[in-house]
Amino acid sequence: MSVTAPASFLDIVQRLARECRVPGTGPSTVVSQTGLLARLVNWASAAWVEIQAMHPEDWNFLRQSASWTTVAGTSLYPLGTGAGTVGVAASAFGSWITRATSSRDSTFRCYTTSVGTTDEQVLDRTGYDAWRDTYLMSGARSVRSRPVVCAIDDAFGVALGPVPAAGYTITADYRRKPVFLEADADIPACPREYFMLIVYLAMKKYGAGEGAPRLYQEGAAEYNKMLPQMERACLPRPRLMGGLG
User: Fold this and answer.
1) Neighbours of 228 (CB within 10 A)
2) Strand runs (DSSP E) across 113-157, as ranges?
3) C-alpha 166: how far from its chain's center?
4) pLDDT tens digits, residue range 145-189?
5) 152 and 158 in contact (C-beta within 8 Å)?
């Protein structure tokens, strides 16, 4: 562990205690603390959630990939981690990533599992009602073949059309939802050089909660310097629009 350059949630809370001039060496664990040490743990965890929630659709460190295999005759794959699901727990899921309005500009892809990614093709996107009216209608229900289309239902499950046979792998990108830090070894998803941003925001919470305006101001000053750095590094770069004529 390194309080100088925090590498885990426990490091972050210990550094927070030092920055806030808390007597002693700070907590030896983040679990089951009481009093001021418990408040330090809660402020640091809440600060991380607040940072994630600032740009939940854009932070690049919240982007993850999902992968699952098709089950013969199963057209709808809900959130979950068991067979016949998309392999992502609902508690971790934020939103599916689609890069543009074009149906061909999708992060959803399909390949024959036995062949591998050389067989990979983009899945067209369509609306759920359009998918249902096309692939769960009359004789189309009994067709078993390679999926070429996907749709998202109201619970963020993925519908595939035609109804797939077994033997295909589906991949897609999604955003994780903001998560709390809870255990000593928990590590924030952002680059390590920005872990101190959590400390500085938690210092503001400490200053407001403990009536320490000077510490609040110190945390705010450092937070305001580091946040733009993290945003430049971890948000998509603006793209210039092309000419109109």
Assistant:
1) 9
2) 121-122, 124-125, 149-152
3) 29
4) 999 999 999 999 999 999 999 999 999 999 999 999 999 999 999
5) yes
CB 50, CB 132: distance < 8 Å: no
- Cβ-Cβ contacts under 8 Å for 45 (sequence gap 6 or more): 9, 180, 181, 182
For residue range 209-220, list pLDDT tens digits in order. 999 999 999 999
Nearest-5° Cα angle at 181, 180 to 183: 135
Q: pLDDT of 55-101, one tens digit each?
A: 998 999 999 999 999 999 999 999 999 999 999 999 999 999 975 54
Q: What would you measure as the largest C-alpha separation in the chain, in angstroms?
A: 73
Q: Give residue 86's identity as a one-letter amino acid code.
A: V
**Do the Cβ atoms of 219 and 203 come closer than 8 Å?**
yes
Q: Which two tokens stand for residue 114?
A: 């036995």
Query: What does the alpha-carbon distance between residue 18 and residue 196 come to, in Å, rounded to a whole number?
Result: 12
Calpha distance 201→222 (Å, rounded): 9
For β-strands 109-112 and 158-161, DSSP reports them as: unpaired
Give the span between the Cα atoms of 90 and 208, in whole angstroms: 34
Determine how β-strand 124-125 pairs with β-strand 149-152.
parallel
